[in-house]
Amino acid sequence: MGQVAAGNPGGCGFLGEHVVRMLLQREPRLCELRIFDLHLGPWLDELKTGPVRVTAIQGDVTQAHEVAAAVAGTHVVIHTAGLVDVFGKASPETIHEVNVQGTQNVIEACVQTGTQFLVYTSSMEVVGPNVKGHPFYRGNEDTPYEAVHRHPYPCSKALAERLVLEANGRKVRGGLPLVTCALRPTGIYGEGHQIMRDFYHQGLRLGGRLFRAIPASVEHGRVYVGNVAWMHVLVARELEQRAALMGGQVYFCYDKSPYKSYEDFNMEFLRPCGLRLVGTRPLLPYWLLVFLAALNALLQWLLRPLLLYAPLLNPYTLAVANTTFTVSTNKAQRHFGYEPLFSWEDSRTRTIRWVQGVESSSQ
Ligand SMILES: NC(=O)C1=CN([C@@H]2O[C@H](COP(=O)(O)OP(=O)(O)OC[C@H]3O[C@@H](n4cnc5c(N)ncnc54)[C@H](O)[C@@H]3O)[C@@H](O)[C@H]2O)C=CC1
Ligand SMILES: CC(C)[C@@H](O)CC[C@@H](C)[C@H]1CC[C@H]2[C@@H]3[C@H](O)CC4=CC(=O)CC[C@]4(C)[C@H]3CC[C@]12C
């Protein structure tokens, strides 16, 4: 692959920023990087002084013409843009419009303008946990699992992923085949993770304590944002040479992060920052948590005309947190030589430092 011009819809988000920085640090053939996002970050300005031509484009993936203009002339597109909402902040229609129609617009832009390689950030949620609460224990890309969803977010990710995979092989302008690939991160953590910041602030408000709501036995797969970004860069690099093997494939994003409950895993970073998790088992019975989650959903609906009430606890987040979902796979290693760039110890240290930075900035 010669000189590379890459496009990154969603490049200003939590994952997107790490993908942008990883591309600039570790892709020597990159000559131009276009960052397309609804909300451009101020940090982009510091990137424009380097050897790579960095272009920040403010735009909306739901607007096909804006996407086409941004994609035209690129060699590869890394599509991380999305509405990551499981808290009821956006309507189901908006989630669908951004995540599904927006992805369709990215695909069509590649076809119409001749971009041959598309990497899509999918999600573990395409698989599960399903509405029946079936555990997915150390599963891989081929593990049979009844992927049944009702929530708008997982539904939108599953639809978008299917569009991307079905587009593999379509002829783009110029007659060459489009080569697509979807990456499925499990719960991403690291510098910039808003939910981790929310948990930290919640703990500060509660006198340095968080109260266990989920049994420690319920394990949730997590992956460090730097390793997810690295996997995206590797796929963007290898997709051309390994098109026959990788085209139309899905890959879970994984690293050496330990399998723990969502709350215990968060405490790996919050405990060194002075918080403690109260209770070796859930302090409230599950039926009461279900009631409180339903009450939050009712309050959100009643208050919507006045204000946005979107707490962490709602029926969906409780169900997901309470269902084991862990992956164990090496498909990415087998197909394109992926090895995590950051060890668990390094990932943990970097995340702790970031939370401590949140601590100092909020004092
Ligand atoms: N955060 C997580 O734990 C996981 C995230 N993912 C996926 O990774 C991707 C990135 O997620 P995060 O970085 O966590 O989310 P984020 O919300 O931090 O970033 C999403 C980015 O997309 C942009 N965006 C949203 N709507 C847009 C639109 N209409 N037009 C253009 N840009 C738009 C946002 O401005 C933001 O910069 C998403 O596709 C998400 O589904 C997958 C698995 C886990
Ligand atoms: C209030 C308690 C029940 C608390 O434990 C709730 C935690 C809850 C906010 C998180 C538990 C599992 C998370 C999701 C999981 O990591 C999978 C995801 C994949 C994505 O593509 C986007 C984010 C998320 C849905 C993630 C969101 C936060 C949780 C539901």
Automatic annotation (TrEMBL):
<keyword id="KW-0472">Membrane</keyword>
<keyword id="KW-0560">Oxidoreductase</keyword>
<protein>
    <submittedName>
        <fullName>3 beta-hydroxysteroid dehydrogenase type 7 isoform X6</fullName>
    </submittedName>
</protein>
<feature type="domain" description="3-beta hydroxysteroid dehydrogenase/isomerase">
    <location>
        <begin position="10"/>
        <end position="277"/>
    </location>
</feature>
<keyword id="KW-0812">Transmembrane</keyword>
<dbReference type="InterPro" id="IPR036291">
    <property type="entry name" value="NAD(P)-bd_dom_sf"/>
</dbReference>
<dbReference type="InterPro" id="IPR050425">
    <property type="entry name" value="NAD(P)_dehydrat-like"/>
</dbReference>
<feature type="transmembrane region" description="Helical">
    <location>
        <begin position="283"/>
        <end position="303"/>
    </location>
</feature>
<dbReference type="InterPro" id="IPR002225">
    <property type="entry name" value="3Beta_OHSteriod_DH/Estase"/>
</dbReference>
<keyword id="KW-1133">Transmembrane helix</keyword>
<comment type="similarity">
    <text>Belongs to the 3-beta-HSD family.</text>
</comment>
<dbReference type="Pfam" id="PF01073">
    <property type="entry name" value="3Beta_HSD"/>
</dbReference>
